[in-house]
Amino acid sequence: MQTHPIMAENWLIKSYKVKKTMSPQTFPLILPLLLIGTLFFNAVEANPQTLVRHIKPDDALRIEIQEAGIYWLSYEDLADAGLQPQFMNPQRLRLFNQGEEVALNVISEEPDYFQPGDYIEFYAQSLETIFTDTNVYWLYWRKKGLGKRMARINGKVTGEAQPIRAFYDRFLTEKNNTWDIWEGSPDTQDYWFWDRLNASDVKTYTVKLPALPLEQTEVVVRVGFRGRSTAPPYPNHHTVVYLNDILIGDVRWDGDAEYVQEMRVSSALFDNKSNTLKIELPGDTGAVVDTVYLNWIEVDYWRPFEAEKDSLILTVNSNGKVQIAVNKLSQSEILVYDITDPNTVAEVVNVSVEKEGKGYQAVFEDRVTESKTYYVLTINQYKQPPSTTLWQPAKLKHPKNGADYILITDKAFLPAVEPLCDFRRQQGLRVKSVSVEEIYNEFNQGLSDPAAIKAFLKYTYENWSGPAPTYVFLVGDANMNYRAKKKPNKVPAHLYLSVGSKSLLIPDDNWYVDVWSDYMGNYILPEMMIGRIPGDSPKTVARMIDKIIRFEKSTHTHSKNVLLIADSSHKEEVLNEVLVDTLPGGFNADKVYLGAYLKNAETEEQKKKQIAKATRDIMASINQGAMITNYAGHGTVDRWSQSKGLFGPSNVHRLRNKDNLTFVLALTCVNGQFATSNKYSLAEEFMLAKGGAIGVFSSSGLTYTGENELLSGQVFSMIFEQGARTLGEITTQAKIAAYNEGISTGVIRSFILFGDPATRLKKW
């Protein structure tokens, strides 16, 4: 990290010293050079394109921010990011956040151009959404107009202002460890919780305040709960709260809604900054089940103007002129900013700095009307952005764009998917590959949000040169915990609450291509064909891309074999038998019905052996070449036959059918739940395997036999009766046809194609 110029010897002073030590003989040479330099910069300002052809007017510096603070960027930082700061006019530097201009401080020796030693500084806000903790700021240097600048407030101590000794602060601590949702929309409610507590549980949590409460004051402690159980009698929840082993709250409450337990206590209970909050559920309500979630803990308290780690953000409520003294600062170079409006920050100047014990105290005065928020910090608390990137727009909103096939992936994966894009172009498709980062930048001010992807696809459908796009292919991992560090989101899922025999939060790729909003705002049926594959690295993605290309370039024809697998229930066997009747002449139906394998098995050992035999037969049939593999029965995220463990990831990766890839129709629950936080779904495993499948059509949620029968019948009809060849057409048209026959909208949303929707099955 560079040293802030104020922290080093002032470069302007050094420049002055150099000029003072020049001998008279140097001036005849220096003066012409200065004149040439002036003419050079004037020429660039008058016609920048003559010298900086690769910099465009709408280029910008993308600045990522993860914590609030005063940030600075030097001339050298801008150059390192790929900019050409020597051609910048400091007056035209402009900073934006979420579409709003942000005030800057520009420190430059010359008013008309940047040079080494110059820098900018600004206040940046942190960001906390369900999707991201990274805020994005945009620095422009060629936008029309002059930039917004920080005002200055005279903070000189006159002794005429009213001294204020403390301020009222709010401390919030929250952790997102577990999720649950049972009503409403995941877009509009918090479904991540800190902890689950059941009757008779006693759990403790640490609350670390940045400063001790002011002595002899009242402190408000709040605990945010969410009730989970609804069993009578009522009230059916009882929560008891202790602070540092002292009882502070004992409440009975009711229902499955949010509940805030508020307690008022003396500041004397906080004996140090680290405190223990204990929560107990006695389990004495008489309800069969008493379950609640802990969401957050909040503390409101009066605290003195004491800096924590050389900084303090404080809010003062008053009407009139006030004097504020902030102590416990470790060095004398102290800055104060009015951040009441984060986009119109003002610097407080003429602050008095006094020695206080081993540290320093900053004292300033200001006129407050109702409320003002200040940020006090020492110079060593200046921050540099963790990431800055020169952004050159992809111009995704240009109406001359046009595509039949849109591939969306992570920026790092673009080279890995390019061979497939080239292959699709050779097939005559108009192809556009675009990164999610480009979509976020142009459709959501740089902020991560699945809604930006939908907005992009809607824009392409309505505004790009026709015909509108047909295929959308998403490439990269997804995680329902959008901010997860393990299995991070590459191309995120949109989540929705599926309400049935059990409420589930599930991914819904159909939402991305449901872009026709003129029918009651949500038509459900897709306007484009969409598919996805996982991928956590360019290497993994490249392997699957090669698998797709190799399949389509292969001269093999599909074998006339269809593998039909059923769980032990008779109704799944009936579903498969209906499909047999739709097969054309010459096709062979290879059947693995688990009920037949277990018919004569009596002991657990015999059952295990029969299940293992059924698994081997499934693998053998796929290895010999099955055009379609259809499974009907129970399942979990990564397994067929939920309780029996018929077929799972280890079996998929042992398949040896890379030259005879199958198309899998998985008529079971959650085999397509690709957004789990800690593993891949079975549908994804089929795509990740060297052999396995060229495509999988499976549900991310719960399924029901009657709907599965309608959907599978339409899939077989699309292939064998209507001659559909591409995976996108087969699966999308099958959903629409089945919807017309009465399947629920949940099937439209939850059934997902894993694979490239433009992939064509082989002739048979």
Structure description:
- By secondary structure, the protein is an alpha+beta fold.
- Helix content is 23%, strand content 32%.
- Helix 4 packs parallel to helix 8.
- The strands form ten sheets. Strands 8, 9, 21, 22, 23, 24 and 25 form a seven-stranded mixed beta sheet that branches. It has a six-stranded mixed beta sheet with strand order 34-33-35-38-39-40, sandwiched between helices. Strands 4-3-7-1-26 form a five-stranded antiparallel beta sheet, with no helix packed on it.
- The protein has four domains: 138 residues, no CATH class; 138 residues, Jelly Rolls (Sandwich); 120 residues, Rossmann fold (3-Layer(aba) Sandwich); 199 residues, Rossmann fold (3-Layer(aba) Sandwich), CATH 3.40.50.
